[in-house]
Amino acid sequence: MEIRSTISEAMVPAAAASLNVVDLSISDIQSSVSTLKQACRESGFFYVINHGISQGFMDEVFAHSKRLFDLPLEEKMRLLKNDKHRGYTPMFDEMLDADNQLNGDYKEGYYIGVEVSEDDPRSRKPFFGPNVWPSEDILPGWRQTMEQYQRKALGVAKEIIKIIDLALDLSGDFFDKPETMGEPIAILRLLHYEGRVSDPAKGIYGAGAHSDFGFITLLATDDTVGLQICKDKDAQPQLWEYVSPLKGAFIVNLADILERWSNCIFRSTLHRVVLGGQDRYSIAYFVHPNYDCLVECLPSCKSDTNPPKFPPVKFEEYLLQRYKDTHADRSAYKD
């Protein structure tokens, strides 16, 4: 099943992408595996529908996100991202495409990870520790809503990961094992793109061209068009296509560590955000392998004619380097 974008050419000059649709409500798992496998090989992006999270709850999460970003900048800067990668990131904090961007991304964000207390041994690791939460007095019910969304999104992600497992001719639980993704690093990121017109010719983007770092990303968006994908990153010139928001669906994309794990059989696709002057809100849920997972070519993805393309890598080292490459030094925000 495919859905073709209904965006009119009057609204956007770029082409509109056709993406496969994975329906989590159907009982025929092999049909889902076939649909997902085609999407993973051809575009690395697909829609997921009937995932079990109600539209009413999604509307509530978006309303809470907007309330946070509507706070005065001074208030948001008190929640600035810490060394555990939790909290607020201001405009231009990220430079995702340094070769083509002028100032950085025209977006602000907010990171929320798995809550880990300071006395937990895991808190000594870079991506584990207490979250940075806005005061209940300022944003009542905010933390509870976000934690509930985290639980629901993780449940959806695990369903998708199981289908990916089968699509790669694995055991069905390979990515659920303690040494792989039994305890994934799952990061929720709220995003707000300000109402600025993007101008690629001048290096102005809502978000510069990039591929995601980890395993998969679940993206929920408002109705504002902006996400573009490039299915062939090596093409010259690159062809960019818009991805339509689809009410009630997640837009799911594969990330770099899955491409690496699958020996490039499954694709991690370049994407960016190009806007026409409207504010845009989105909610990304990044799912990564376990912190100490060793990522090496899957047995089902290599052969004598297709040997491993990447050396093994410990996910901790890989993720730290990717964040260092794309985020601003926090000391730039200090007096």
Beta content comes to 15-25%
How much helix, percentage-wise, in residues? 10-25%
Separation of the first and last Cα atoms: 54 Å
Structural class: alpha+beta
Radius of gyration: 19 Å
Parts with pLDDT < 50 across at least 5 consecutive residues:
1-13, 330-335
Shape: globular
Largest sheet geometry: 9 strands, mixed
Strand order of the largest sheet: 1-3-4-12-9-14-7-6-5
**Can you count the helices?**
6
Helix-strand pattern = EEEHEHHEEHEEEEEEHEEEEH
The beta-strand count equals: 16
List the helices and strands and how they pair.
Elements: E1 2-4, E2 15-16, E3 18-23, H1 29-42, E4 45-49, H2 55-69, H3 73-77, E5 87-89, E6 107-112, H4 142-167, E7 185-193, E8 207-210, E9 216-221, E10 227-230, E11 241-242, E12 250-254, H5 256-261, E13 270-273, E14 280-288, E15 294-295, E16 313-314, H6 315-326
Parallel strand pairs: 2-11, 3-4
Antiparallel strand pairs: 1-3, 4-12, 5-6, 6-7, 7-14, 8-13, 9-12, 9-14, 10-11, 10-13, 15-16
Helix pairs in contact: 1-4, 2-4
Q: What are the key terms here?
A:
single chain, 335 residues, alpha+beta, nine-stranded mixed beta sheet, five-stranded mixed beta sheet, 16 strands, 23% helix, disordered N terminus, disordered C terminus, Protein SRG1
In short:
The protein has 335 residues and is α+β, with helices and mostly antiparallel strands. It is built from six helices and 16 strands.
How would you describe this structure to a colleague?
With 335 residues, the chain is of the alpha+beta class. It is built from 6 helices and 16 strands. It has a 9-stranded mixed sheet. A 5-stranded mixed sheet has the order 2-11-10-13-8, with no helix packed on it. It has a two-stranded antiparallel sheet with strand order 15-16. The radius of gyration is 19 Å and the shape is globular. The protein starts with a strand and ends in a 9-residue tail after the last helix.
